[in-house]
Amino acid sequence: MPIDSAPINLTHHFLIAMPGLEDASFARSVVYLCEHSERGALGLIINKPTDITLKGLFDKVDLSLRREDLRAEPVFSGGPVQTERGFVLHEPMLMDSAETEESAYASTMTIPGGLEMTTSKDVLEALSTGAGPRRVLITLGYSSWGEGQLESELAENAWLTVGADLSVIFDTPVTERYDRALALLGLQAWMLSPEAGHA
């Protein structure tokens, strides 16, 4: 990589797996990147549901779930790291006081571009009472890349990237998210060759 090239920042972007990416965790996956810096990247897969529903997850942590709209929603496999931990991707929930931009929850990463990712149980407690963020996607586990790792995977044509569209995360049926993410680039799956092209 030339020394004068600016580092890319793909925070609030989708990574879309190319057909040649055969790693079981990531084949045909769409990853929402919560953070990307020179130190590495962290994201959540948004199109790999597990067989656990949100109601099932709440039962496991001894919370009721009063949000009828969420009970049957799946918990997603967010990636191969810390698969026993929950990660809640949600719309921003700011404290009521006007002078602070602080999130309403204890352990929250604010993602430039419009979402928050919370790992503390207080967000689940808020949802259990019928409150909390209106739109959520909950994963077990996350995806991460060390320093320079994602950049080298991009150079190997493992991923396509596109700015994130929240409607793909929250409004698109799970089975259509891969194709909808590709459509943001004007592509369809049949157009992609698993062979990497080098001019």
TrEMBL record:
<dbReference type="Pfam" id="PF02622">
    <property type="entry name" value="DUF179"/>
</dbReference>
<dbReference type="InterPro" id="IPR003774">
    <property type="entry name" value="AlgH-like"/>
</dbReference>
<dbReference type="GO" id="GO:0005829">
    <property type="term" value="C:cytosol"/>
</dbReference>
<comment type="similarity">
    <text>Belongs to the UPF0301 (AlgH) family.</text>
</comment>
<protein>
    <recommendedName>
        <fullName>UPF0301 protein HNP48_002612</fullName>
    </recommendedName>
</protein>
